[in-house]
Amino acid sequence: MIAQLVPPAVSSADSFEDHGWDALYPEERALVRNAVESRRREFATARACARAALSGLGLPPVPILPGVRNVPQWPTGVVGSLTHCAGYRAAAVAHSTAFHAIGIDAEPNEALPDGVLGSIATAEDLRHLDAAPRDGVVHWPRLLFSAKESVYKAWFPMTGIELDFADATVHAVADPRPTAAPSAGEATGSFTARIRFQGQTPDGHPVSGFSGRWLVRRGIIVTTATLPVPA
């Protein structure tokens, strides 16, 4: 799924089944040794996806350890992101010479819990949601949540600036329907995210937003936010 959303220069890997515990590095295993079984499985599978994605860049396997705010610590010269939700794990990485930032997120394509929308949506977000199609395929408030998660995962490692849900406004739209009808329960689209204040790329250029892609398939919403380095 993730490969359908990221640009060609981004290497990605995903999995619908858990694996990889035996391949964890000792320092990784120590982080989740006392965690519940479901947490150990998702952690191991996400690391397996990360190493598969790094292999796609021609890089050797390395431990992927959490840093500040649990941001994955990638090898020097690499940017990337991990995600996991029930039934799905994924990783996406790229050389930092090609991308300033990558953020990915996966969520169940289900209604948000009561009260969550009011805590994550701006007034502009709500206007966009009101205009979204009511086709029963996409849970748009959950898509909004996922897109904001992707934006945060791209923004914070790049800028070091904390971002709250209210600091980003997202406008998501569905792709035009193809000539051939998509499989039941599937949809794709894009989104733009505008940050209410300005940050900087690693080379000092201002940035205040991202473009992204989204996909709904197999009961899962996947979103990606990327910021390429200008040619």
Automatic annotation (TrEMBL):
Which keywords describe this protein according to UniProt? Answer: Magnesium, Metal-binding, Transferase
The answer to whether the entry has keyword Metal-binding is yes
Q: Which GO terms describe its molecular function?
A: holo-[acyl-carrier-protein] synthase activity; magnesium ion binding
Which positions fall inside the 4'-phosphopantetheinyl transferase domain?
101-182
Q: Which positions fall inside the 4'-phosphopantetheinyl transferase N-terminal domain?
A: 27-94
Pfam families in the record: 4PPT_N (PF17837), ACPS (PF01648)
- What InterPro entries would the database entry show? 4-PPantetheinyl_Trfase_dom (IPR008278), 4-PPantetheinyl_Trfase_dom_sf (IPR037143), 4PPT_N (IPR041354), Enbac_synth_compD-like (IPR003542)
Biological process, per Gene Ontology: enterobactin biosynthetic process
Q: What is this protein called?
A: 4'-phosphopantetheinyl transferase superfamily protein
Lineage of source species: Bacteria, Bacillati, Actinomycetota, Actinomycetes, Kitasatosporales
